[in-house]
Amino acid sequence: MRIGIASQLLGTGLQRVLQNQPECEITWIAQNGLEAVQKCETDIPDILLIDPNLPILDGAETTRRIMKSSHSPILLVTDSVEGNAAKIFEAMGCGAVDAVDFAVNGSAEEREKSTQNLLKKIKTIMRLQQFSVRESKPSALVIDVKQANIPPLIVIGASAGGPKTLSAILSKLSAPCASAIVIIQHVDRDFSFGLTEWLNNQTSLTVQVARIHERPQAGHVYVAGTNDHLVLTASLRFAYTPEPRNMPYRPSVDVFFNSVAKYWPTPGQAIILTGMGRDGAEGLALLRQVGWHTIAQDEATSVVYGMPKAAKEIGAAVEVLPLDQIIRSIQQSVTKNTR
Fold this sequence. Notes:
Elements: E1 2-6, H1 11-18, E2 25-30, H2 33-42, E3 47-50, H3 59-69, E4 74-78, H4 85-93, E5 98-101, H5 108-128, E6 153-158, H6 162-170, E7 180-185, H7 189-200, E8 206-209, E9 220-223, E10 229-232, E11 238-241, H8 253-263, E12 269-272, H9 281-289, E13 293-297, H10 307-313, E14 319-321, H11 323-338
Parallel strand pairs: 1-2, 1-3, 3-4, 4-5, 6-7, 6-12, 7-9, 8-9, 12-13, 13-14
Antiparallel strand pairs: 10-11
Helix pairs in contact: 2-3, 3-4, 4-6, 8-9, 9-10
């Protein structure tokens, strides 16, 4: 695979690692964001590694400009997850697929671990472009109408471009809110707590990582928080599972949506937002089959038109809407349920 690198500080270390991988070819190395944009205009690599702290144009602006003319997947590479969380989420909102911590200092063991994490991320992202979910669907909808205090549920799946889109949605919602909202955003567990904290600052609702054995509560927004798949159990509580192991999407929107279709007693609202690949399309179709109101984001307002396109193509979405209308639909749903 052909790889482009945009980093002033990490370029040498990334080059050293990748040149020892027979399947990797370094196409070019840019020292700043503007140079990376210009190189992409004439030579688009299979995958881009971008430092969020680029000079001239930072990682977010570089990502935004590249995504306007190319859908080459972008992996953010940083030497400090905690120190760059805000910049990472901003760049992911502009279309970056994922982020990884790459250690340039530290012990040999730490450097080797970060190298393996980097290579794993690269391979996963390349699989995302080809992967189509073929997991078996739940055979039946299990409903326990006697469950007490079950709030209306809104479930959302997102990937590349998701953080910024989710921020736009949550910033328009306010307490009191009778619905519970669960978000599956493709993001590494190292960034899930930072993403949750960042989203929590965008809304008056309570945004938190979904915890094992916890049941969705009205007025709360839950974000999947590990590299395992978030699911709902028969007791309507959260759990995490490593299965299916062969899925590159972690956490998977399809896996969560399937569990919701199987166990949640009343239909709610399910939404697929911007993202690369096909994750969530089949789960959305299953939710539509059991009575949920399903929505896919339109192409014009999607940063990456992969997941919502797949949902549209298989007829999973009741509606295909631009972002502003998706926000309005959620607001109407929340207002209706609050009355």
